[in-house]
Design goal:
five-stranded parallel beta sheet; alpha/beta; 145 residues; 54% helix; globular
């Protein structure tokens, strides 16, 4: 199985926040962790914002950034179809990078019918669109109640 992480999920691998344990569990024994290339600057932006607002001390911030940059090479960093992303924006009123992530995950899922792709995001609008587009969406158990 391949787990596709959007940025909201990817950050949870590096920062302890609500549902970090779930994301770590989902990615522990998968064949591949995939994301779109835009997740690299998005993740660094999220980590930097957390540091700048005082949520992460300088030493922890530097360690987390270093770990993320080193581990980036182990992820399947995917491209996306910009026309499909634009269609998804209009169809589901998604934000631009949310549509980019969904277009990227769809491209991955369509590449090989024998490979199961599970999608992870913590944005409900994006998850709803992903379900409507035929993707399996991972959600923490407490969200499923």
């Amino acid at each position: 199985m391949i787990v596709y992480l959007d940025t909201s999920s990817l950050v949870k691998l590096y920062i302890d926040e609500e549902h970090s344990d779930a994301v770590r569990e989902w990615t522990a024994d998968v064949e591949v962790i995939a994301t779109c290339r835009v997740a690299h600057p998005e993740t660094l932006s999220a980590l930097t914002r957390r540091h700048n607002c005082g949520d992460i001390a300088k030493r922890e911030y530097e360690k987390v950034v270093r770990t993320f940059v080193e581990e980036w090479q182990s992820f399947a960093a995917l491209d996306f179809d910009e026309v499909e992303a634009g269609r998804l924006v209009r169809k589901y009123a998604l934000r631009g990078f949310d549509a980019v992530h969904l277009a990227s995950a769809k491209l991955l899922a369509s590449a090989d019918a024998n490979v199961h792709v599970a999608f992870s995001s913590f944005d409900e609008r994006l998850n709803s669109a992903a379900r409507k587009e035929g993707l399996t969406v991972l959600t923490p158990a407490e969200q499923q109640r």
